[in-house]
Amino acid sequence: MHELSLSGAVLNTVVKHAGERRVIVVSLRVGRLRQVVPGTLAFYFAFVARGTVCEGARLELQVVEVSLRCDACEKSWEIELPAFRCPTCGGAEVAVASGNEFMVESIEVEEAECIARK
Amino acid sequence: MHRTKVRIVEDALDANDTIARANRADFDRAGVTVVNLMSAPGAGKTALLERVAGDVPGARVGVLEGDVQGSMDAERLAALHVPVTQLNTEPSFGGECHLDANMVRSALDALPLQEIDLLVIENVGNLVCPAEFKVGEDVRVMVSSVTEGEDKPLKYPLMFRTCDLVLVNKIDLLPHLDYDLDRFLYNLDQVNPGAQRLLVSARTGDGIEAWRQWLADLAARTGERALL
Asked: Which pLDDT score is estimated for B20?
């Protein structure tokens, strides 16, 4: 359900970089911890993009797996379920190495041809 | 026309986080500690505030009430002579389901920051979106009531992971429910290892002194930091 809020944040970021140029593709990297449903995000993005340079743009979403690292025993591991204690030493000081991303990686825009005048 | 790829690599929530930092700087300058209070609708955020807001030792409390619509909660708290500022999200796009940094920024001028030491921002009832948007808080407190079920930390890990304290509310109802409190605490510890928690009942007053003291300690700690 938070895809509507998040699609607004994506739109603002893209519009800031696109300026007046029409946007064809938006590439995102989204960590699994963000609990984003890709189809839902694309649906809301199309909705909030209406009337902006992003209208009709395609959303490409790359999902990033969750990788954790224990500060105490320096073990790294991937998780499927939200269990954040270190399985080796039981430590609580666990850092999220990846899986928290919500990054606009790149956009493809249409550039007007440069008409050189002599 | 031709196409160009533009590399951006920017967190989509950067804009919000930047405004949140500006809010935080303003709160710090005024010497005000800020709590972002979150929960599902009906978990008891307002009831738990009613219990303590008028009397936190050593700290004058103010409340910023976030609601999609209406001011019922603000009126309940104002009756306790606590300064309350109402922030409705309804006039913006479709009635936002959460507060963001910009909405809180728009309310700054209306907040009596010189008259308070502790500001509690009562977020819109929702376990999902509020977790994504920082508003300029020092700490995050969430309320999870026992009627919601013990599986909630596993279903909403983003919310449960980002909070500093979990208030387990409505414990007076435990004898009437199949709720497994140990299971809930185990699930919470899996998602947010070592998270602080207090067992409370806004209705009977159980655990309320500990909640009051937690806020007093928080305000004292942040106050010391401001003096350094």
From this structure: 96
Give this prediction's pTM: 0.90
The distance of A1 to chain B (nearest Cα, Å) reads 7
Token pair in block for residue A89: 């030493």
Q: Looking at the complex, does the CB of residue A58 fall below 8 Å from at least one CB of chain B? A: no
A73 touches chain B (CB under 8 A): no
- What is the pLDDT of chain B when averaged over all its residues? 92
Q: Which of A2, A13, A61, A86 should one mutate to test binding to chain B, selecting the residue with the greatest count of B CBs within 10 A?
A: A2
Please indicate whether, in this complex, the C-beta atoms of A5 and B14 are within 8 angstroms of each other.
no
B119-157 pLDDT per residue, tens: 999 999 999 889 999 999 999 999 999 999 999 999 999
**The pLDDT value given to residue B85:** 92
Q: What CATH class does B2-227 carry?
A: alpha beta
ipTM: 0.85
Judged by a CB distance cut-off of 8 A, whether residue A28 touches chain B is yes
Q: Residue B167: name the closest of B142, B149, B201, B185 by CA.
A: B142
Residues of A with Cβ-Cβ distance to B1 under 8 angstroms: 110-113
Q: What does the domain layout of chain B look like in residue ranges?
A: 2-227
* Tokens linked to B200: 């409370």
In the A/B pair of chains, how many CB contacts fall below 8 A? 108
Helices marked H in chain B: 14-29, 45-52, 72-78, 101-107, 152-155, 157-161, 181-191, 208-227
